[in-house]
């Protein structure tokens, strides 16, 4: 959540300015800072609303990642309450943030990490929140593989994650994927498992696991544009 803390001073001051002068931004003022501050607050507030209910835990989590100084907290709170009414328009705010940091993906990742912190504050991340986070990640320019990595750092891997099934990390080189697949397939092939004494009634489970391994391998190849 580093970037949220780094931009606090700029964003909080710009937020106060935005509240006071929304319709008449004065010459010489860094409008870009005001727009960025607004977009950042909007993304956090609209995420909290994504599952239909803004909880006290989510509000506290927002305050943790957007730790505005006391002098600006009221203004930031006013914007948060304004944006928490609906999720409509969150894509435009995500695009505004993406444009500002298009050359700094590490900063965009920190912002996405902050959003994950808000989403999981009430103990779970709902399907609607997942859709929101994935869409923001897409706008930020992250691939599906990068999104899964960021998600896993916050929520852990999903049971059907193809990399988890093959027992490999997403950073594995393309040239090593086939070796990893063959190693996993060899260890779990139904014939080999049966030869080790697996009861016949368990053969169906062994075959199902092998099918999962094959499917995971196919998904990774397709994702990376590779052929078997």
Description:
With 228 residues, this protein is an all-alpha fold. The protein has two domains: 2-156, TerB-like, CATH 1.10.3680; 163-224, Helix Hairpins, CATH 1.10.287. The protein contains 13 helices and no strands. The protein has helices at 2-6, 8-21, 31-49, 56-65, 70-83, 90-100, 105-119, 127-140, 144-155, 162-166, 174-188, 190-195, 203-224.
Q: What is the CATH architecture annotation of the largest domain? A: Orthogonal Bundle
State the helical fraction: over 70%
In total, the number of domains comes to 2
In CATH, the topology of the largest domain is named TerB-like
**Oligomeric form of this entry?**
single chain
N- and C-termini, Cα separation: 39 Å
In short:
The chain is elongated and about 70 Å long.
Blueprint (SSEs and pairs):
Elements: H1 2-6, H2 8-21, H3 31-49, H4 56-65, H5 70-83, H6 90-100, H7 105-119, H8 127-140, H9 144-155, H10 162-166, H11 174-188, H12 190-195, H13 203-224
Helix pairs in contact: 2-3, 2-5, 3-5, 3-6, 3-7, 4-7, 6-8, 7-8, 11-13
Give descriptors for this structure.
13 helices, 228 residues, Helix Hairpins, elongated, 0% strand, single chain, mainly alpha, 2 domains, disordered N terminus, TerB-like
């Amino acid at each position: 959540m580093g970037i949220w803390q780094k931009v606090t001073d700029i964003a909080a001051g710009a937020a106060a300015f935005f509240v006071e002068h929304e319709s008449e931004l004065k010459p010489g003022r860094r409008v870009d800072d005001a727009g960025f501050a607004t977009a950042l607050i909007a993304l956090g507030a609209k995420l909290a609303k994504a599952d239909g209910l803004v909880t006290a835990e989510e509000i506290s989590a927002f305050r943790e990642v957007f730790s505005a100084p006391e002098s600006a907290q009221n203004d930031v709170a006013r914007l948060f309450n304004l944006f928490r009414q609906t999720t409509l328009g969150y894509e435009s705010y995500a695009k505004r943030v993406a444009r500002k940091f298009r050359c700094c993906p590490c900063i965009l990742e920190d912002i996405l990490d902050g959003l994950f912190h808000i989403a999981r504050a009430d103990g779970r991340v709902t399907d609607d929140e997942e859709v929101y986070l994935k869409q923001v990640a897409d706008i930020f320019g992250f691939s599906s593989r990068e999104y899964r990595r960021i998600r896993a750092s916050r929520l852990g891997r999903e049971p059907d994650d193809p990399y988890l099934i093959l027992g490999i990390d997403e950073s594995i080189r393309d040239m090593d994927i086939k070796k990893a697949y063959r190693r996993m397939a060899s260890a779990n092939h139904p014939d080999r498992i049966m030869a080790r004494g697996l009861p016949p009634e368990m053969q169906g489970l062994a075959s199902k696991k092998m099918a999962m391994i094959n499917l995971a391998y196919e998904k990774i190849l397709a994702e990376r544009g590779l052929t078997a």
